[in-house]
């Protein structure tokens, strides 16, 4: 039985798109007969034991702290994680080390893998220098940006095989000179076993929010970052309500843009139609989903949104929800305009309003759109099938190792 050690920035029991993707991968691999464990680096900011079971999955923690000035601190962080990986590998004896971005995890895995002659797969979920820019924590072209990019290139070069979550990231790496044959694709996916029929409308919650049964509800459920474009969605509401007077906007979540978005909504002529719930417990989220007619994802055009596919639209499609999204590269890989959802021009509130109005007016088409969207997820994004992409590469690397030709994978 193949053993796979996943190297992670953070994991369950923390909740994020990152941890949910990890959970889906590890669960699907376990169901397919692989033995899996995870090990997290120093950035897993949650109290807990050194070995912790969450949702039936075992995660090991790297203890200690990395100190010093920027650069040296990260280098020490990589060293601590590499030591933790090696110690665990000597005890558990994994066949493959599967590291997930950021590159700090990747380089730690490469160090441990080379020392122990264990093949290393490195998976890129986003370029973290671009994510830092999108989150407002970094600046494009800065020294830190260039160093992070260089570190990513080094890990891609030294890993035995590489996966990206979408074509945008893969194409960018190839454009940097990395060999296409080394880089596989493992698209964002969902565990369809978790999604049955959409829940019935929560009448009690609707009454609490003041929603009539006939009010069309546009929703966003997630983190409030600037690149998500929620300011544009707020600005689209007056034009939308001009043709759909009962339309409501429900914003569930929080994040760096929370205060600014609330101020923007308060200044809107449609302020009475815009509701913020704040963050809600994970087990309560489905109640809010039940009220939403259309999930809106108005991401702004940027390097991050052009290259990276988000998880939320896939989850919405799997739940039988309608999706309206801006026409950026990450969304185009997920949504077929007019077939499985609608796309609209990014950074344009009027285009957003028009797309939402047209979709709300086409209620007769909703069942077919929902069915096509869920079928697309089933065919292309179900983890029960997508994990085979990993297994094929694992088998190839293990065959090369047994033949003494592991270096040929690099």
From TrEMBL:
<protein>
    <submittedName>
        <fullName>Glycosyltransferase, exosortase A system-associated</fullName>
    </submittedName>
</protein>
<dbReference type="GO" id="GO:0016758">
    <property type="term" value="F:hexosyltransferase activity"/>
</dbReference>
<dbReference type="InterPro" id="IPR024004">
    <property type="entry name" value="PEP-CTERM/XrtA_GlycosylTrfase"/>
</dbReference>
<dbReference type="Pfam" id="PF13692">
    <property type="entry name" value="Glyco_trans_1_4"/>
</dbReference>
<feature type="domain" description="Glycosyltransferase subfamily 4-like N-terminal">
    <location>
        <begin position="17"/>
        <end position="189"/>
    </location>
</feature>
<dbReference type="InterPro" id="IPR050194">
    <property type="entry name" value="Glycosyltransferase_grp1"/>
</dbReference>
<dbReference type="Pfam" id="PF13579">
    <property type="entry name" value="Glyco_trans_4_4"/>
</dbReference>
<dbReference type="InterPro" id="IPR028098">
    <property type="entry name" value="Glyco_trans_4-like_N"/>
</dbReference>
């Amino acid at each position: 039985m193949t053993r796979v050690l996943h190297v992670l920035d953070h994991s369950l029991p923390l909740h994020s798109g990152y941890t949910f993707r990890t959970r889906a991968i590890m669960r699907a691999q376990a169901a397919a007969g692989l033995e899996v464990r995870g090990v997290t680096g120093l950035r897993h900011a949650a109290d807990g034991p050194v070995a912790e079971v969450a949702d039936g999955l075992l995660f090991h923690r790297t203890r200690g702290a990395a100190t010093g000035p920027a650069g040296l601190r990260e280098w020490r962080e990589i060293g601590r994680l590499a030591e933790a990986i090696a110690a665990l590998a000597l005890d558990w004896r994994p066949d493959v080390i599967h590291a997930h971005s950021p590159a700090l995890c990747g380089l730690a895995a490469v160090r441990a893998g080379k020392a122990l002659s264990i093949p290393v797969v490195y998976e890129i979920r986003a370029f973290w220098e671009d994510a830092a820019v999108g989150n407002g924590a970094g600046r494009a072209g800065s020294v830190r940006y260039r160093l992070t990019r260089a570190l990513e290139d080094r890990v891609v070069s030294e890993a035995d095989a590489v996966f990206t979550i979408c074509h945008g990231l893969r194409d960018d790496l190839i454009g940097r000179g990395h060999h296409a044959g080394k880089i596989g694709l493992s698209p964002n996916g969902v565990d369809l076993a978790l999604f049955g029929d959409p829940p019935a409308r929560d009448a009690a919650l609707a009454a609490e929010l003041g929603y009539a049964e006939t009010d069309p509800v546009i929703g966003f459920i997630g983190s409030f970052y600037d690149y998500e474009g929620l300011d544009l969605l707020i600005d689209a509401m007056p034009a939308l309500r001009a043709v759909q007077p009962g339309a409501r906007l429900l914003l569930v979540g929080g994040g760096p843009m929370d205060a600014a978005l609330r101020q923007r909504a308060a200044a809107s002529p449609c302020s009475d139609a815009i509701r913020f719930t704040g963050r809600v417990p994970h087990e309560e989220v489905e109640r809010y989903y039940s009220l939403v007619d259309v999930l809106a994802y108005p991401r702004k055009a940027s390097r991050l949104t052009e290259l990276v596919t988000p998880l939320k639209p896939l989850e919405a499609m799997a739940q039988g929800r309608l999706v309206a999204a801006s026409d950026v590269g990450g969304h185009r890989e997920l949504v077929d305009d007019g077939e499985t959802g609608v796309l609209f021009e990014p950074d344009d509130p009027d285009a957003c309003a028009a797309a939402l109005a047209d979709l709300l007016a086409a209620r007769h088409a909703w069942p077919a759109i929902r069915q096509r969207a869920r079928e697309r997820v089933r065919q292309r994004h179900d983890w029960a099938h997508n994990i085979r992409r990993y297994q094929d590469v694992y088998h190839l690397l293990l065959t090369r190792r047994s033949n003494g030709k592991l270096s040929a994978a690099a």
